[in-house]
UniProtKB/TrEMBL annotation:
Pfam families recorded: rve
Domain Integrase catalytic: 48-101
Source species, domain of life: Bacteria
InterPro entries recorded: Integrase_cat-core, RNaseH-like_sf, RNaseH_sf, Transposase_IS3/IS150/IS904
GO molecular function: nucleic acid binding
Name this polypeptide is given: DDE-type integrase/transposase/recombinase
Any one Gene Ontology BP term: DNA integration
Amino acid sequence: MIGRFKVSRLMEELGLICEQPGRHACKQATVERIDIPNHLNREFEVGAPNQVWCGGITYVCAQGRWHYPAVVLDQFTRRVVGRVFSTRPDADLVVRVLERA
């Protein structure tokens, strides 16, 4: 195992520079979107399967390219009911994952 200070010293000797990306600023909505109805109203208790689904999209760099996995979960069973991978984070990705669910 090698410590970070030794790595730093070796990099300095070799003339290598480490650049890390800055932090992304999280944005929080300043006003509530009244055009998008809040059906759950933070009440996540569900009585049966397929009443409430939740989903998400993230991004992963693999083989030098960005890939976007999307999943849909059943809130009652807590199981994945649909999953899709894409090379673009577009509306087609969302439609396809919902069709698979």
